[in-house]
Amino acid sequence: MSAAAFPSRPDRVVDGPTPKHAQLREILRHAVERELPPGSPIPSERELAERYQVSRLTVRSAIGKLVEEGLLSRVRGKGTFTASRRMELQLYLMSFTDDMRRRGLEPTTEVLGTTTEVPPAATANALGLAEGATALRLKRLRRADGIPLAVERGWYHPVKVAGLFELDLTRSLYAQLAEQDIRLDHAWQTVWAESADKETARLLGIRTGSPLLVFRRVSSMAGAPVEDMTSWYRGDHYQVTMQLDRSSPDSGNPAKHGGTR
After folding, report:
1. Rounded to whole angstroms, how far apart are CA atoms 42 and 222?
2. Distance between CA 218 and CA 229 in Å, rounded?
3. What is the per-residue pLDDT across 62-86, written as a single tens digit (0 to 9) for each?
């Protein structure tokens, strides 16, 4: 895409109290939020530098901030593009596979590892395991239409889902467990923000330190805990919306069920 074709307001970057990179960032933000559809390429650093008569370092700083905010995304070897609109993360029990198919996307799963080991104390407590008891650990990378969206690192009760590793772990676990009459019907979920560490960033194809939404969910069947799953979702692809009212909070204790960390 040429600089001449790039839509923007007639703003110029000028000398003044506001740093030039901040001025350029707002010009680009306006174009991204109001004029360009998702997935649109933006001009190269060189083109933007020439168009607004600033240094490439200034352009790089402006673009970098918008990438951090999730408005732009860099694709190695191809350039910088306006980011796709964020998807709503669902706050009810639904498998990743079913959720992506509901959105019209094709889900795929890569198994990163399976082990049997002693879990951290918080997980042992959440799953109701005795001190020193082992649990089943599963790590997976989840993609939609080929784009890596989430890294899952989960622990499972060694008795209630003893045959976990015999399942097709590239498919929906919830669906396969349901076929064995193991239907997760309740969960406590905690959400927080986190910066991507080196390993998670590599798996998701993002920069170390990029924003992530992290969900820890302890799921149970008929009151018995089965799964303690933590999922790291790309912050540039997801958002969470909640409906609030003035009713009294439930008297249940999430900590009792391992829902806090």
Report:
1. 52
2. 6
3. 999 888 777 888 877 788 888 766 5
What mean pLDDT is reported for the chain? 83
Residue 90 makes CB contacts below 8 A (sequence gap 6+) with 99
Q: Report the SS3 class of residue 49.
A: helix
CA distance 232 to 201: 10
Q: How far apart are CA 124 and CA 120, in angstroms?
A: 6
Closest CA to 233 of 119, 111, 87: 87
Find tokens 């829902």 and name the residue. 259
Say which DSSP state 257 is in. G
Whole-model pTM: value is 0.63
143: CB partners within 8 A, 6+ apart: 107, 108, 109, 110, 149
Beta bridge partners of 52: none
How many Å apart are CA 206 and CA 142, to the nearest integer?
14
Contact 189, 226 (CB under 8 A): no
Q: Is 225 exposed, middle or buried (0-12, 13-18, 19+ CB in 10 A)?
A: buried
Distance of CA 20 to the CA centre of its chain: 32
How many angstroms separate the CA atoms of 181 and 176, rounded? 9
Q: Rounded CA gap, 24 and 13, in Å?
A: 6
Are the CB atoms for 184 and 177 separated by under 8 Å? yes
Q: Which two tokens stand for residue 117?
A: 């080991």
pLDDT tens digit string along 100-157?
677 677 788 999 999 999 999 999 999 999 999 999 999 999 988 788 888 999 999 9
pLDDT of residue 261: 37
